[in-house]
Amino acid sequence: MGQLNHSTKVILNNQNFESILFERINKNIRNISLKKDLIDEPINYSLSNPGKRVRPILAYLTADAVELDLQKIDSVATAIEVMHTYSLVHDDLPCMDNDSLRRGKPTLHIKYNESSAVLAGDALQSLAILLIAEDKYLDTSEKITLIKSLCETVGHNGMILGQYLDLKFEDTNPSNTEIIEMYGLKTSLLIEFSIISPLIICNKLNDDWKDLARCIGISFQLIDDLIDVTQPTEIIGKTASKDIESKKKTLPLTEGIGKSQKIIEEYKLKAFEKLHILDLDSHPLKKYVDDLFRRVN
After folding, report:
1. How far apart are CA 183 and CA 215, in angstroms?
2. How many whole angstroms separate alpha carbon 19 and alpha carbon 208?
3. Phi/psi at 210 (5° precision)
């Protein structure tokens, strides 16, 4: 059972947590809607196209699990979603993965143009950092630690490097270990930050939490890659089988569907083991993690 959160007077449980948290993050996104300049229109378009909100939901559930007031994580959860949106905007560009569909709608450069997509993505990145910097519920030390960690997560040795390797591997033959390392940088690090950030604030981060975050992060990308080759465009909200067309090096394409499913199951078992160690068998976080793994079913 989730903990009573005194700022919202809401108890999160397995039945209500997703709707409550989805509305919370959407409200936070609406509150930062920009209305002043021409560049704000494409920025708002990218933010108003809701995805699954996986990362902020993980941040909120982790905060609830350690009895951290959700107000303490509002700006961080919003910043994570804004940063994730920036990565998608740039990832969809013709010079990157060249996608025309994202979350069931035209990608930003298709809706507007390439220059608007580049500039909107840049603006989203700095906006994410600004959200944390201006948070009235975090003290200066917490802000510095969180911003430093977020910048390391998405920077030249983090997500950016992962994106670079993803493109480089199109013309090389990486090993399975190298592919998983790329998954870790490209996708897992931001998911890990989502889980770790509340623990940084309340000083409760330990190796079990780190292992859990890593299992969720790596498996999330692996499941996405499996879905890309097994589900149609109408289901996934973006162009299906794009990895094959782009000559991507993913485990489902290099090792096959069966072996990929086996690896995913191994990550699931380890994640559930860590949830048990952390005494979260009855917490909504376990239900949500289970739902994330069930995407392959």
Report:
1. 11
2. 28
3. -65, -45
Computed over its alpha carbons, how large is the radius of gyration of the chain?
18
**To which residue do tokens 């699990």 refer?**
65
Token pair 């699954």 is found at: 52
pTM for this predicted structure: 0.93
pLDDT at 263 over 60: yes
Write a three-state SS string for 21-78. HHHHHHHHHHHCCCCCCCCHHHHHHHHHCCCCCHHHHHHHHHHHHCCCCHHHCHHHHH
**Burial of 106: CB neighbours in 10 Å, binned 0-12, 13-18, 19+:** middle
- pLDDT per position as a tens digit, 88-105: 999 999 999 999 998 889
Q: Which tens digit of pLDDT belongs to each residue from 119-173?
A: 999 999 999 999 999 999 999 999 999 999 999 999 999 999 999 999 999 999 9
Close Cβ partners of 56 (under 8 Å, ≥ 6 residues apart): 21, 25, 77, 78, 80, 81, 194
Amino acid at 149: S
Beta strand 101-102 pairing with 10-11: unpaired
C-alpha to C-alpha distance for 101 and 290, rounded to whole angstroms = 27
